[in-house]
Amino acid sequence: MGCMKLCAWTVVVVLCALGKISGLDNGLALTPPMGWLAWERFRCNTDCKNDPDNCISDRLFRTMTDILVNEGYAAVGYEYINVDDCWPERERDSRGKLVPDRERFPFGMKSLADYVHSKGLKFGIYEDYGNFTCAGYPGVVGHLAGDAATFESWGVDYVKLDGCYALPADMDHGYPEFGRQLNLTGRQMVYSCSWPVYQIYAGMQPNFSSIIEHCNLWRNFDDIQDSWASVESIIDYYGNHQDVIVPNAGPGHWNDPDMLIIGNFGLSYEQSKTQFAIWAILAAPLLMSVDLRTIRPEYKAILQNRKIIEVDQDPLGIQGRRIYKHRGIEIWSRPVVPIHGQYYSYAVAFVNRRTDGTPSDVAVTLRELGLNNPAGYRVEDLYEDVDYGVLSPQTKIKVKVNPSGVVILRADAQPSYAYNAIPTRTPYALNDVFRLTKKK
Ligand code: GLA
Fold first, then answer.
1. Are 60 and 111 a contacting pair, CB within 8 Å?
2. In terms of DSSP bridges, do strands 122-128 and 158-162 run parallel, antiparallel, or are they unpaired?
3. Region 60-79: what's the mean pLDDT?
4. Is 40 touching ligand 1 by the criterion CB < 6 Å?
5. What are 17-50's pLDDT values in tens digits?
6. Taking the model in full, what pTM does it have?
7. Strand order through the sheet with 406-413
8. Which ligand 1 atom lies nearest to the CA of residue 134?
9. C-alpha 43 – ligand 1 centre gap (Å)
10. β-bridge pairing 80-82 and 34-37
């Protein structure tokens, strides 16, 4: 496997050299960022007097840092502790500097970042390109260089720059300019942008080549909420717009379908498995927004599923696609390593969007999924720990998918001595996929 990964990286490097993949040149986020982000679960709760355990405060972030390290999340790759909105004072100081809320962050942000770093993790913060953040705190406009320098001085590793109270047309220069200011500080900071989503809402066509060049990740669509309907709307958006969205992803530059809400109130166990599987197929950042103090073990196990995390973090960084959708059954597929000759390996997710109560059977040959390697594929189920062994392209696989649930398989291409090292064909065998779609 080590050698295979190396080969895959060689492909990435070669493609970069050919100019096929380009992105923000800060060397960061070569795989989608993983961590914990406060917003979806903890929102703008500033009431530390009445709700000290759940308010946006130094204490909340230190607690989550400890849990990330002590309860196995860091060991499987979760790395960033990210503050979202509502952290600063309502006013800058007399010199125009951002100040963390004095009561809720009494030791300041440098102290919090130092604590996160002392545990081997990285620290993220939130700001907004406009006059105000979405919750009405000071935005960076007019203070780009100063705020970038402030973040550098605090030891920030990741900046999410939102786009409320800004003109979408200004973002084409504003986002690159703030990114330039971050780079000028000399500190490497992951740059998360909301640039395209605000432009799409304003009816504009985002300039994705510029967005890829200036951001490590970006939002395309609505904020996630604590419901299956919200997760479904995001899955549909990414499937329905995949021809525009998918080509923009790659090492260093990722589409961000928003946070993982697994372990909260709105998703069933099946739906939680589906969110995690589809986020991995989408090469999405894995930013958990959940109370890690109270999460139930079965949800924790989903978030710590190493095999699915490995799909998400695949070094090729090719985002997957929806290759089949009919009568509530969807098949999503993502090319991954190892590659043998012209044949990629794949992660394949079967999703049941039906609500008729009984599990649905889906039967399909590997060939119909576009998996044509004559040497076959080693196939395993990533949730159930079932190893199907090496299967030929003609083999029909049959899976049972629970309502609003998922089955996710990994099919690793097997080697054959006849193959060359570099793939020569598209990772998606579209003709085969088309045949599948027509037949059903
Ligand atoms: C916007 C963003 C969210 C969150 C809030 C904070 O809605 O999209 O992710 O950061 O602002 O106010």
1. no
2. parallel
3. 99
4. no
5. 333 445 677 999 999 999 999 999 999 999 999 9
6. 0.92
7. 321-326, 329-340, 343-352, 406-413, 377-381, 387-391
8. 12
9. 9
10. parallel
